[in-house]
Write a structure and sequence with these properties.
- There is one protein chain.
- This protein has 251 residues and is mostly helical.
- It has twelve helices and no strands.
- It has two domains: 20-121, Up-down Bundle (Acyl-CoA Binding Protein), CATH 1.20.80.10; 137-249, Ankyrin repeat-containing domain (Serine Threonine Protein Phosphatase 5, Tetratricopeptide repeat, Alpha Horseshoe), CATH 1.25.40.20.
- 47% of the residues lie in helices and 0% in strands.
- The longest helix is centred in the N-terminal third of the chain and has 16 residues, at 38-53.
Amino acid sequence: MAEAEDDLEVEDDGSEELDPRFLAATNHVNIIAPSLNSAQLLKLYAHFKQAKFGSCNTSRPSWYAMEAKQKWEAWNSLGDMSREEAMNNYVMLVESLDPEWKSKSCDVPEKSSNQNWISVSTLATEDLPLDDSDKTVYDWVKEGNVDMFKKFVRNEDINNIDADGLGLIHWAADRGNLDVIKHLINNLKADIELRDEDGQTAIHYAASCGHFNVLKFLIDQGAQKSVEDNDGVKPIDIATDDKIRSILYNS
């Protein structure tokens, strides 16, 4: 599972002119976005994507990437709605949020069809580069820096859940970092069945990301293969390929 780099960006196929009213509305949303709530932003985001690119054609984001997953689900929920209808709906949404928006709107730059969706979603926070001095043990695991992980890990970190709802073992399984997993299990006695905020264990992450070696190690160490998350999803339900499914079935 990748992190929220997954901003659901796709190439514009340029197959349809964008309505000037829609472009003006997107400009206005850049102004009013700070005053909108997440539900309103998600609805706007979904219609913006549908209007520019048509039906959702990207893969479902990682399980732990809650913001990206919410955006994907909002866009995907529009199904085969036409781009024209999506543009009209977007304009009506802006009108409902700010009835006087047209009088406040700036002129639309000619050919602004490539303007980006404002980091709008406010939802789409991107990780900024960190100085080494500012990094936590979680950052070292994400980067796959085993030496720095071993240097900074403390007992209280081992089974702790971070602000993203994951423990060190989940991050390591997500990144396919077998050395970190081994150190956590063999040396630090981490909980191999530790659940993230969605009830998923490291096996869910290894299975959904296709990290065969990590998955095999976890199973060999006694991790439960059929554990269900909060939604009743088992690792085999999100396995990436037959090789992953096979080890979950047969080992």
